[in-house]
Amino acid sequence: LPQKHSATGTTIFTVMSALAQQHNAINLSQGFPDFHIDERLASALGRAAADGYNQYAPMAGLPLLRQAIAESFQKRYNVTVDPDTEVTITPGATYAIYTAFTAILSPGDEVIVLEPAYDSYIPNIEMNGARAICIPLSAPSFSVDWQRVRNAITPRTRAIIVNTPHNPTGAIWTINDWNMLADAVRDTDIIVLSDEVYEQLVYDDRQHISVLQHPELRARSFALYSFGKVYNNTGWKMGYCIAPPALTTAFRRIHQFLCFTVNTPAQYALAQHLAHATEPIHSIMQRKRDHFLSLMAHTPFTLHTPAQGSYFQVMSYERISDMHDKQFAEWLTKEYGVATIPVSAFYSSGHDDRLIRFCFAKKEETLEQAVERLKNVP
Length: 378
Ligand code: PMP
Ligand code: GLN
What we know:
This protein has helices spanning about 10-20, 40-50, 65-75, 95-105, 120-125, 145-150, 175-185, 215-220, 230, 245-260, 265-275, 280-295, 325-335, 365-375, and strands spanning about 25, 85-90, 110-115, 130-135, 155-165, 190-195, 220-225, 240, 310-315, 340, 340, 355-360. By secondary structure, the chain is an alpha/beta fold. The protein has two domains: about 10-35 and about 280-375, Aspartate Aminotransferase, domain 1 (Alpha-Beta Complex); about 55-275, Aspartate Aminotransferase, domain 2, CATH 3.40.640.10. The protein has a seven-stranded mixed beta sheet with strand order 2-8-7-6-5-3-4, with helices on both faces. The radius of gyration is 20 Å and the shape is globular. The chain starts with 11 loop residues before the first helix and ends with a helix. The structure holds 4'-deoxy-4'-aminopyridoxal-5'-phosphate (PMP) and glutamine. Keywords: Aminotransferase, Pyridoxal phosphate, Transferase. This is Pyridoxal phosphate-dependent aminotransferase. Pfam families: Aminotran_1_2 (PF00155).
């Protein structure tokens, strides 16, 4: 059978979650909350099905949900989004990223990827016959080396994919990063894919800056979102894409023949839930991050920078071992019963800074039990 991409083997999230299960370990590897969703959202889903909203929704998504998304962006970012021509509902952000790539890439194109990078980006680029040009972010702050980005641009560069707040490092972009990106792509046809799935998870009074708030970049960007990260329902696999009308048209041209339309009762439930007042998810998650970090101070793991955003905290095990990170993560799961993600899994080259990623989107008691185990690590 043809090899459609260069990533051999199985995604690290499947590998580590399976290993956690096999060894009865506490799973701080794959990013998903282990607590219940808002009861009102759960009952809205049941009600939508009982009320008969069970047939195909329109191809672009339920107008009610697209309208609610547009209102939310107006309110939260002061940006005007046209729900008819700029918003498309998708079965999750992973799908939206793939669809955006497929809408714009031709064989031989190049796409700039900043590493560490979410593990679907490069396979998605390669499935479209294009090539990823990888540029490492600079540890320990994981900032972008803009000179290297500018040097990587060639006449074949079709796109760049960026991610803020960032998985796995928790770094977030400032307005300066967006301005530097705008400078780098100004005289090119490069399209920006802006993965903003953790937009609502930023800490210490920081603000997420969306590509949609940068008018010059917005005109050439797909912005990709996931409801899973906002409502703690990653298993619903619901997301959306916001892009200017011409890019949205190209996106829907692919979407209509990939899955055509998305789960109808889930769209109804989310549309209703968007209007509800709830405690901001960043406050809930920041308490978890802070609790996790104060507990981890009693272990031999070392912290470079507290996560500015996302579900994740990267830590070093330099005081414990000089094993490779994949080997270390496996050992920690088997011997100490805590599963994490080795950060080298986010590099195409296998680049290994001896870092592992913890997911803190968990019940307090889960975090406490995990740290009790980690305290035993010599
Ligand atoms: N992008 C990043 C950076 C992610 O961490 C994830 C995983 N949650 C996704 C995209 C995919 O989101 P979804 O589950 O909605 O497909
Ligand atoms: N985004 C989540 C993570 O980084 C998991 C997504 C997945 O399992 N593919 O852990």
